[in-house]
């Protein structure tokens, strides 16, 4: 049976992480186009392709490693993978929250430095380093989700996570093209804020699942008795319970330590994530500085159009 919850979980991750990567690429390409350096686009795609390939290879290697281990090493590796995935997505959420106001200016200044002081192929390296962080985070997070889904729904659950992630990434790529073309259809601050909230609940589920794995192998022995059992009302292995299990890590009979971990993570991380962001000097640098004269193309320029930046832009 198709696991809708696992699919939705993968879709959310692919969409959120894909939009971040697509936004980075769109900013770089848009800035190159504004400065007459569209001939450098091919190098950007080389860097992006290498980052995507490395991320897919890492994710596949980790997931296949989990499946090839025997007990109790499988549970140990699975628990550590879930723990790392939860930690990575938590770091990513707060990094994006803190850097959102300055990421555009930072990328544009990096393009300036590469074109001025480095080789043109430095753009491929710039694109690779900008995208690989998002790619590795996505790979680790999806491996954690697929591992958790496989534990409840078998390989069908893992495939549902992958299918959802692929669709999310395709949608993210389309949105990235819209960013490049100047579309304002998506309110980015609102998008990142609310998908971030949803990912906090997903990460809490991964963390609680990791705790459960450590209980099974005897690494955790404190407060391991069931906190409650609502299996007669909402079982976690079918229907809505299965959906909530894939999205939020729901189980109808959690151990006390698992339940406390889940609640504590959500309360603490959600409170920190939703607090106002203090303005800093980086916000004043959001727009790029004028391109140095020696970076400007020497080839004939087309007649000015509406896409050409005005003087002093």
Molecular structure report:
The chain is mainly alpha-helical and 313 residues long. It has one domain (4-276). 69% of the residues lie in helices and 0% in strands. Helix 1 (4-34) runs antiparallel to helix 5 (122-153) and helix 2 (41-68) runs antiparallel to helix 3. It is elongated and about 65 Å long. The termini are far apart. Mean pLDDT is 79; it is low at 281-301 and 303-313.
Specify the structural class.
mainly alpha
Work out the helicity level. 55-70%
Measured distance between first and last alpha carbons: 55 Å
Count of individual domains: 1
How many beta strands in the DSSP annotation? 0
Q: Report the sheet-strand fraction.
A: under 5%
Number of helices: 9
Order of helix and strand elements from N to C terminus = HHHHHHHHH
| Rg value | 22 Å
Mean pLDDT: 79
Biggest pleated sheet:
none
Shape: elongated
Give unreliable regions as ranges.
281-301, 303-313
Give me some keywords for this one.
single chain, mainly alpha, 313 residues, 9 helices, disordered C terminus, elongated
Summarize the topology:
Blueprint: H1 4-34, H2 41-68, H3 73-99, H4 103-117, H5 122-153, H6 155-180, H7 188-216, H8 239-248, H9 256-274
């Amino acid at each position: 049976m198709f696991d809708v919850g696992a699919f939705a979980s993968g879709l959310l991750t692919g969409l959120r992480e894909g939009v971040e990567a697509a936004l980075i690429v769109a900013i770089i390409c848009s800035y190159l186009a504004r400065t007459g350096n569209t001939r450098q686009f091919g190098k950007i795609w080389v860097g992006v392709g290498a980052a995507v390939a490395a991320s897919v290879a890492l994710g596949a290697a980790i997931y296949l490693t989990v499946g090839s281990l025997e007990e109790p090493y499988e549970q140990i590796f699975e628990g550590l993978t879930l723990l790392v995935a939860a930690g990575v997505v938590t770091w990513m959420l707060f990094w994006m929250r803190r850097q959102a106001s300055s990421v555009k200016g930072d990328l544009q200044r990096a393009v300036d430095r590469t074109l001025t002081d480095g080789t043109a192929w430095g753009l491929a390296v710039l694109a690779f380093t900008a995208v690989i962080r998002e790619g590795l985070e996505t790979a680790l997070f999806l491996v954690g989700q697929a591992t958790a889904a496989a534990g409840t729904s078998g390989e069908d659950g893992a495939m549902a996570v992958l299918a959802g992630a692929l669709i999310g990434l395709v949608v993210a790529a389309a949105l990235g093209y819209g960013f490049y073309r100047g579309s304002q259809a998506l309110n980015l601050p609102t998008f990142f804020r609310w998908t971030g909230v949803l990912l906090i609940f997903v990460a809490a589920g991964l963390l609680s699942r990791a705790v459960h794995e450590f209980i099974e192998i005897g690494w955790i022995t404190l407060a391991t008795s069931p906190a409650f059992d609502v299996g007669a009302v909402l079982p976690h292995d079918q229907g809505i319970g299965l959906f909530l299990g894939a999205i939020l890590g729901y189980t109808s009979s959690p151990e006390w330590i698992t339940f406390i971990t889940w609640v504590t993570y959500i309360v603490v991380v959600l409170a920190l994530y939703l607090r106002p962001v203090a303005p800093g000097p980086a916000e004043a640098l959001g727009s790029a500085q004028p391109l140095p004269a020696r970076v400007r193309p020497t080839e004939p320029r087309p007649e000015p159009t509406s896409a050409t930046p005005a003087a002093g832009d």
